[in-house]
Design goal:
Blueprint: H1 16-22, H2 32-49, E1 55-59, H3 62-71, E2 79-84, H4 87-98, E3 102-107, H5 116-125, E4 129-135, E5 137-138, E6 143-144, H6 147-155, E7 161-165, H7 177-180, E8 184-188, E9 199-204, H8 206-214, H9 224-229
Parallel strand pairs: 2-3, 2-4, 4-7, 7-8
Antiparallel strand pairs: 1-9, 5-6, 8-9
Helix pairs in contact: 5-6
This protein binds pyridoxal-5'-phosphate (PLP).
Length: 236
């Protein structure tokens, strides 16, 4: 057998230990055996995200985690800011617009990181901005946006949350979710976690859960409140 070695930002190679575990027979998910594994994974994710809060596990690629981050915390007509410095910033805009949000884009030259002042100015100019969307690592250009500084800025606005796509950043860079004050942090299984694609992970702050209480965007499969109450919905 020829062993292929992936050198992409994702999917990354899956270690043999994980490949062998996947070759084992299926067992039912409503069993103590699965619950123990699920709990271990959920606890491990809290460690990885450096958060005391729940990190939810969704059966979706990373984009599903991005969509869940829009659908669960906003309502049609909400104003948001998207940092668009590449293909994945553009994806935030597309998802937000799909859900009827009013997007102001901060366009960043490809390959460059956003100036925190641009975000601070946008929030100052319009106190009705409810969310700031950004990539920790914009894979399409390799630029890293200054998430720590952005969190400092957004924290000062009680009416605004910071949503970070950490799909190629979590597990690569140090991104302490609670310490920095990130409200929503998303990653996917096939990048730094070295797993097959198909799982998205979403960390949610208390401030973001407050937004969830009034958010009217439609959601069913990606209803994070229900998932939080009764995990694992990933098999429902
Ligand atoms: C920064 C970033 N965001 C989003 C995605 C989309 O993730 P997925 O392909 O798992 O849906 C990727 C994939 O490469 C990415 O690098």
């Amino acid at each position: 057998m020829q062993k292929k070695f992936l050198l992409a930002p994702g999917p990354t190679p899956v270690p043999e230990k994980a490949l062998l575990a996947m070759a084992e027979p299926m067992f039912h998910h409503r069993t103590p055996q699965f619950e123990a594994i699920f709990k271990e994974a959920a606890d491990g994710l809290k460690w990885l995200f450096q958060t005391e809060k729940d990190v939810l596990i969704l059966a979706a690629s990373g984009t599903g985690g991005m969509e869940a981050s829009v659908a669960n915390f906003f309502s049609p007509g909400d104003k948001v800011v998207v940092v668009n410095g590449g293909k994945f910033g553009e994806r935030w805009t597309k998802i937000c617009q799909t859900y009827g949000l009013k997007v102001t884009e901060i366009m960043v030259e490809w390959g460059k990181a956003v100036e925190p002042k641009a975000v601070a100015d946008a929030l100052k100019a319009d106190p009705e901005i409810r969310g700031v969307f950004v990539q920790a690592s914009e894979t399409s250009t390799t630029a890293c946006h200054p998430v720590k500084e952005l969190a400092e800025i957004v924290k000062r606005h009680y009416n605004t949350i910071l949503i970070v796509d950490g799909i190629t950043a979590v597990g690569v860079y140090d991104i302490p979710m609670d310490k920095w004050g990130i409200d929503i942090l998303v990653t996917g299984s096939q990048k730094a976690l070295m797993l097959p694609p198909g799982l998205a992970f979403v960390g949610v702050s208390d401030k973001a859960w407050k937004f969830n209480e009034t958010a009217k965007s439609p959601r069913f499969y990606f209803d994070l409140k229900r998932e939080r109450k009764n995990p694992p919905r990933l098999f429902h």
